[in-house]
Amino acid sequence: MSERRYDILDKLPRPDAETIENRKRYAKLTALFSAIVAVVLLTTSIIIIGGAILLHKLKILKKIPDLSVASTRWAGVIVALFSILIGTGLSAGVMSVPLRLLEQYIDMIDRLTQGKFDTRIKIPAVLRRFRPFRELEESFNKLAEELGRNEVLRNDFIHDFSHEFKTPIVSISGFAKLLQKGNLTEEQQAEYLSIIETESEKLSNMAMNVLDMSKLDNVGVLTDITRFNLSEQLRHCVLMLEKKWGEKNQEIEIDLPEYYVSGNEDMLSEVWINLLDNAIKFSPEGGKIIVKVFQRDNSLSVEVRNTGEEIPGKDLDRIFDKFYQTDPSHATVGNGLGLSICKRIVELHRGTISVTSTFGLTVFTVKLPKV
Fold it and tell me: Cβ of 316: how many Cβ atoms within 10 Å?
């Protein structure tokens, strides 16, 4: 019977780390308010006892002519009323600060709903000594900051998307009109048709990337997970892009010991192609690209390095944002969605992606759990 009971207990769902942390915070907050109530009651008792002692020392009680049972009861009622009044007054005084804070907090939330993302809450220094209030201030201000940042990104997204979509359309329309007018040489016709084809492919790729990004944003659980040779996949991706790095006479160095990983093979292939394509694009003529994979602790790390111009520090934090490009003129080929897609795919695989760019060397690092 005991073994069966233990089996049943083992099958019960266990709370995750976030749930346990929330329970701890709730317990601490409960303990804090319980302590406040205890202090109020203790203070009230001290005042009542002190008042009684004072009356006794002043011999006021002895001057009362009749201390019959009825008068004693009335005295008890009066003392109880005074206790209630004093306790209520103390409670109101003590709780006025958190109640004012709660009212301020509600007002701040209303301001956020109105789009005023510069709103910040400031907890009084006395209450900031207590961790729950300090976390309240930090969480609220972080939320407001993230909402403001997302609003900026949304506006940038609309602006950049309009720009990226409009430019090829204008180009296609212009060259199509030139072709309609005629009086062009075969070379000019071929050139204009080639430009139209290139711009059309750009529009098609951008539309596909937007659709992919939209799908990935709505994906919560990975499907089609298989165990495959990660090193072989990286070698295959390098060969797929041989024409591009060959045209720029770039040197490719690979360090790919055999490692296996579990995940969606097609999605991860898209990550490596995006990173390699970026490395080829931003590495100069005759530059060097290094691809390596290695194990560290319980994770596999894939590094794609390329020589060339460094990424400015101000761009490193935003480089994975949708439609963000380090070239503000948008002269560089691309639409700024590749790295956003990479980040989302890596996150779905419970991994991380990061970038460093110093001393003429840019390194993208993807860490995946080794299963």
Answer: 16
